[in-house]
Amino acid sequence: MTEIDARRPLLLRAADAALAALDRIPYGLVALLPRAALAHIYWNAGYTKILNFQATLYLFSHMYKVPLLPPTVAAYLATAIELTTPWLLVTGVFTRIAAFVLLGETLVIEIFVMPNAWPDHLIWTALLVPLIAYGPGKLSFDHFVRRRFGPAKSGD
Fold first, then answer.
1. Whether the Cβ atoms of residue 88 and residue 38 lie closer than 8 Å to each other
2. Would you say 73 and 108 are in contact if contact means Cβ atoms under 8 Å apart?
3. How many Å apart are CA 75 and CA 98, to the nearest integer?
4. Assign residue 2 a region: left if phi > 0, alpha if psi is -120 to 50, beta otherwise?
5. Is residue 134 within 8 Å of 26, Cβ to Cβ?
6. In which region does residue 68 sit, left (phi positive, over 0), alpha (psi from -120 to 50) or beta (all else)?
7. C-alpha span between 127 and 87 (Å, rounded)
8. Quick one: which of 132, 93, 128, 92 has its CA closest to 110?
9. pLDDT of 37-48, one tens digit each?
10. Which tens digits make up the pLDDT trace of 10-31?
């Protein structure tokens, strides 16, 4: 510690030490939180759809106005996305692709199905964007594959 550092108030030095400790938390550990949270959110949505798929088909036919897709196709597609991508996120397999697909689904839901649910969709988007931008981190199958078979990139 230099003389200047020693003259800094104790509270500022403690804050510096705390920030330095937080800076040492590995991104891979931090990335587990949004991966798990998103997996929970989307798995529950998909599981609810398959619990009563007739009700799901009714909702897609009469309430959810997904453009360009027939309601039955939209119902099956949404259910498939919501039951497969959580596993990809949790295991860290094709994480960026899975997150990108979920972002697309979230945007469709926000724009065409439930525009008043934007606070939830904003939170989901805030969790998805870092996974798309930086990947799942070192605690993932993606990182293992890239480390074993390809060039390492930041965040993976």
1. no
2. no
3. 18
4. beta
5. no
6. left
7. 16
8. 128
9. 999 999 999 999
10. 899 899 999 999 999 999 999 9
